[in-house]
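thread from #wetlab-drylab

HS: before we spend reagent money on co-crystallization trials with 1PW, can we at least see a predicted complex? here's what I'd submit
DV: go for it
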Amino acid sequence: YSNEIGKRGNMETVADAFKGLAATVNSRKPQVTVKQFSDACSLFSGLFGILDTSFKFAKMDYVGKLNDLAAASRSISTLEEMIDKDIEAGCVKKYGSHTRNLLKVKQGLEMIKVLCEELLATEGDDSLKDAATKAYNQVLFPHHQYNIQKACATGLNSLPSKSLVLLLLGEAEETINVHLQSYVTASTPVIAYLDKLFLSKNLGIDW
Ligand code: 1PW
């Protein structure tokens, strides 16, 4: 892995895409396309690279859900339309529906947000494992079945050091905090928009 000077790190790329999404959701009548959302989420490719060594099942699950949203984006314009179609078809809460996959990806985005906040609040090389465990327990653990919780605990324990992760993401120690903060700032209105969207359809967000 090279960390060339001047190359953009993965977290910076993600943060910029979420700034674009934030601008969309902050507009007066937000029309968030499935494509803009799934493209932005797919930029977590560096993160998926790291999950590949620590817990491949997590990577495969997210990649599967994002591929489903990317496929939906070819025939459906906005996220709201996508949910409406699932409601009409009577499959909105069914396993594997676009809407359910969207909710699970949103929960992943929330976990990453808390992870970034924890990393900003701590220092040191053990901080990644601690921060990821805290973020997982707070955000995803309550939504997961027992066997997944156990597998995640194992995966979290085998996460590499923060400095190796920065190298894998192509991020520099000196600037990572700027990019973590950008993602926190940009993802906040995006997550709030998605929560509001689910609640406006009376779907709830705790499933
Ligand atoms: C784009 C965001 C990437 C976030 C990476 C954070 C990694 C945290 C580890 C999550 C582990 C997921 C393992 C899969 C569990 C599935 O059972 C679960 N999926 C999710 C994304 O929570 C529920 O999906 P399912 O099986 O009910 O469709």
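DV: The mean pLDDT is 94.
HS: ok that's useful, forwarding to the group
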